[in-house]
Q: What sequence folds into this?
């Protein structure tokens, strides 16, 4: 079978690596890939946002299955375009992708289907958002409140403001921060407190199969300090959610969401990613993502024992409930190595040393390329994701950090407290 993966980050390296181990996959392509992905797939220069060129490529190269990595292609309707041409593709259709592409759509959807979430309101202009704040619905001037841009903003569209003054500042700056289109509407939300957990699943429209729960570390600095990033590290560990908590999440979030999609006239087929806050009042949904997380995927897929191609085939056939997906027992951890001055102004072009000395882990490449001498060099903010499994979390972390100690590049940043 010929498989095409769309994307170019650490997530897509992990997806390609997993497909490369499938006995069903004969040729693997990635549009557009990176230097690490080129070790396992043929990288082709088609941009993930050029959905027509992607479909042309899939047709010309007799691609049997396409797997979409990121949200941009999904929000543009890559799945609708492929399906209209009779091409098989894993990912939600454009309508379902609104669960991530529009925060106001997602919040209204949660309200329509009774999915527990933070109290919210949507405003159509910054001035109205400020009036909403002053109405007192989100507490007094000392209450924390969360300000969100409606559209896709590559992780920059959310500000957790400590008080009303900060929230007003965030509302005024939102358009500058994320672009006018993404900030066309502004969602204000009650601030929730608790542990955060990410729960991902395969979904075939009606049924779902859960992946191991994960936690992301979003801030650049240890102890969760400094600016938000795309994610500095993740781990999977069964202790993140108890059986009872999982049951509540299935009953109050997952089933209502999948059925809600059907009731609204579309189906959710693809990877669903729930960002959950475990509050004193029980689990509440922070957000939907409609794709694998980065770097959650790296930590999840190293534990997948079932052939990913077979899982995809079952998702397309609507027979997900008939396959038993196996995960390696224990835990896993992914430590991200980022370039100097990430996330503000990442420096690129530094030679990466020590990759050849590393064993017993998977090193997923995010922002790498090769120089003329054939050295791997940095080419983005997040550079590598060093990923290990272990019988328990401390074993996985210790293996990952031992490998990290062997890798270096000028200005390399990483957090020493992943999984702590
Ligand atoms: P989102 O992209 O909506 O998940 O938001 C990014 C991050 O902002 C989340 O992972 C949370 O840490 C934080 N966040 C979002 N919404 C809330 C909320 N209502 N209360 C507290 N923190 C939030
Ligand atoms: N790591 C968070 C995300 O992929 O959205």
A:
């Amino acid at each position: 079978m010929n498989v095409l993966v769309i994307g170019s980050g650490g997530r897509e390296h992990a997806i390609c690596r997993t497909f490369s181990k499938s006995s069903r996959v004969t040729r693997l392509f990635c549009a557009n890939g990176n230097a690490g992905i080129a070790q396992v797939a043929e990288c082709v220069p088609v941009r993930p946002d050029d959905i027509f060129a992607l479909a042309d490529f899939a047709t010309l190269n007799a691609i049997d299955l396409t797997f979409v990595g990121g949200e941009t292609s999904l929000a543009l309707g890559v799945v609708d375009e492929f399906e209209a041409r009779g091409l098989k593709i894993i990912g939600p259709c454009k309508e379902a992708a609104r669960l991530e592409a529009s925060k106001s759509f997602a919040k209204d959807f949660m309200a329509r289907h009774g999915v527990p979430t933070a109290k919210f309101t949507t405003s159509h202009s910054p001035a109205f958002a400020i009036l909403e704040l002053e109405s007192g619905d989100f507490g007094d001037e000392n209450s924390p409140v969360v300000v969100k841009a409606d559209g896709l903003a590559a992780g920059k569209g959310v500000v957790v403001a400590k008080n009303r003054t900060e929230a007003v500042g965030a509302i005024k700056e939102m358009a500058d921060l994320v672009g006018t289109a993404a900030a066309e509407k502004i969602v204000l939300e009650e601030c929730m407190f608790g542990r955060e957990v990410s729960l991902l699943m395969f979904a075939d429209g009606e049924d779902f199969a859960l992946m191991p729960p994960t936690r992301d570390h979003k801030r650049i600095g240890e102890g969760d300090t400094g600016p938000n990033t795309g994610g500095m590290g993740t781990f999977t560990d069964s202790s993140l959610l108890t059986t009872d908590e999982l049951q509540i999440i299935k009953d109050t979030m997952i089933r209502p969401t999948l059925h809600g999609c059907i009731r609204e006239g579309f189906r959710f087929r693809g990877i669903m990613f729930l960002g959950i806050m475990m509050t004193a009042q029980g689990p509440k949904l922070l957000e939907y993502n409609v794709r694998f997380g980065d770097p959650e995927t790296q930590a999840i897929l190293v534990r997948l024992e079932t052939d990913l191609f077979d899982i995809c085939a079952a998702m397309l056939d609507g027979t997900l409930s008939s396959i038993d997906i196996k995960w390696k027992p224990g835990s896993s951890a992914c430590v991200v190595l980022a370039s100097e001055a990430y996330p503000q102004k990442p420096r690129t072009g530094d030679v990466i040393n020590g990759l050849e000395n590393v064993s017993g882990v998977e090193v997923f490449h995010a922002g790498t390329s090769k120089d003329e001498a054939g050295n791997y060099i940095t080419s983005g903010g997040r550079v590598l994701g060093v990923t290990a499994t272990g019988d328990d979390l401390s074993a996985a972390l210790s293996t990952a950090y031992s490998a990290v100690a062997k890798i270096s590049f000028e200005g390399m940043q990483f957090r020493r407290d992943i999984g702590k």
About this structure: Residues 331-404 form a domain with the Glycinamide Ribonucleotide Synthetase; Chain A, domain 4 fold (CATH 3.90.600.10). The chain has a mean pLDDT of 95.
